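Hi U.,

Before I forget, here's the chain from the pilot set. I'm dumping it here mostly so it's searchable later in email.
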Amino acid sequence: MQVGDMVKVTWTSMWEMTPGEIVECSYGAFKQALVTAVKPADLTNPMMIDVVAFDGTTKKDLEIGHVLEIISESR
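Structure:
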């Protein structure tokens, strides 16, 4: 995984269920997005990426597990 790769990711949204209780829900949403940053894994966190989707929305610190497939790799 590197900057410039095009990926298909599960796209989650943050919802406040009750005051102070924020949960992350995906509802089966998928988007194609461009990887803009890669943050290596460490002892406490898995590898994270930042992405920007074609509709202009962004996600920061997206866990690598949300990547469903690499559509094309940057060269």
